[in-house]
Automatic annotation (TrEMBL):
It catalyses: carbamoyl phosphate + L-aspartate = N-carbamoyl-L-aspartate + phosphate + H(+). This is Aspartate carbamoyltransferase. Gene3D superfamilies: Aspartate/ornithine carbamoyltransferase (3.40.50.1370). Transmembrane segments: none annotated.
Length: 323
């Protein structure tokens, strides 16, 4: 695997390989000593042009637990804020000997540009670009669903027959886009639920059905309900009448959680707007996987970095690395 830029072009084989390696990585995180020597001598740069807490920390933890050297680069307070271009920044990182660059950028397509421009020889991981994709979030979501459904027997399994309902701000959500493509590739049945104003103009090519009534969608008994954050910072128009009205019609509360099948799970990529798209009761219920998603994110990102930087010389699996 040379880069991880999106899930739309990620094959079923490569997706399952990442998830299975993440299982091996997860096993190492229950030990007293969590660190592995796998990427010793490698340098991973976290290049974040947008604010982030959990994603940046998750990638940093993943790289450090694989013994890589980590450089955190924030656009604020750097030469980027003085007008330095992506090309100049990339060439600086190349001169510093970066082996992998984890990039979050406000412009859709920036990671693809970095990976294909020739400015840098490092492997590139997309940590979220504009409203385009966020592949490692989708992978950790799929990992979480698979783990909840199959437990210890999840290695090698896809998500055939699993029904996933994704609810909320589809229009601005790179998480939704990555999940639609990945979950579909893994065999899941995907339904999107949102106000008409928060559905992209043309979703005819998306492998998902669209609904506008949350209660109708929940009546179908999905195995997983993924609530999306309302991205108020990306909104410059009135996409719904009021927050209270949105919460009433499209928010997940205790009543709606109670209507779900007994083994359904509740997901959220975070950060949550409690009381808007999800109530405190729903977020903190035993069905909620929110904290599991955070923990699983480290394992999935360890797997991605491992396959990017060590996979070529060890094409078997990560079991030896995990011992």
């Amino acid at each position: 695997m040379r880069h991880l830029l999106d899930t739309k072009t990620l094959s079923r084989h490569d997706a399952l390989r990442i998830l299975d390696v993440a299982e091996d990585m997860r096993d190492t995180q229950t030990r007293e000593i969590k660190k592995l020597p796998t990427l010793r001598g490698k340098t991973v740069v976290n290049l974040f042009f947008e604010d982030s807490t959990r994603t940046r920390i998750s990638f940093e933890a993943a790289a450090k637990r694989l013994s890589a050297d980590v450089i955190n680069f924030s656009a604020k307070g750097s030469s980027v804020s003085k007008g330095e271009s992506l090309q100049d920044t990339a060439q600086t990182l190349q001169a510093m000997g970066a082996d992998a660059v984890v990039i979050r950028h406000g412009a859709s397509g920036a990671p693809q540009t970095l990976a294909t421009s020739g400015w840098i020889s490092a492997g590139v991981v997309n940590a979220g670009d504009g409203t385009h994709e966020h592949p490692t979030q989708a992978l950790l979501d799929a990992f979480t669903i698979r783990k909840r459904r199959f437990g210890a027997d999840s290695r090698g399994r896809d998500l055939t027959g699993v029904a996933v309902t994704i609810v909320g701000d589809i229009l601005h959500s790179r998480v939704a886009r990555s999940n639609v493509w990945l979950l579909s590739t893994l065999g899941a049945d995907v339904t999107l639920v949102a106000p008409p104003t928060l559905v992209p103009q043309d979703v005819s090519a998306w492998p998902a059905r669209i609904r506008y009534d949350l209660d109708d969608a929940l009546a179908a008994g999905p195995d997983a309900v993924m609530m999306l954050r309302i991205q108020l910072e990306r909104m410059n128009a009135a996409y719904f009448p009021t927050e209270r009205e949105y919460s009433r019609r499209w928010g997940l509360d205790a009543r709606r959680v109670a209507s779900l099948p007994a083994d359904s799970i509740v997901m959220h990529p975070g950060p949550m707007n409690r009381g808007l798209e999800i109530s405190a009761d729903a977020a903190d219920s035993p069905r909620s996987t929110v904290l599991e998603q955070v923990a699983n994110g480290v394992s999935v990102r360890m797997a991605a970095l491992y396959l990017l930087l060590a996979g070529e010389r060890d094409t078997t699996n990560a079991e030896e690395a995990a011992r």
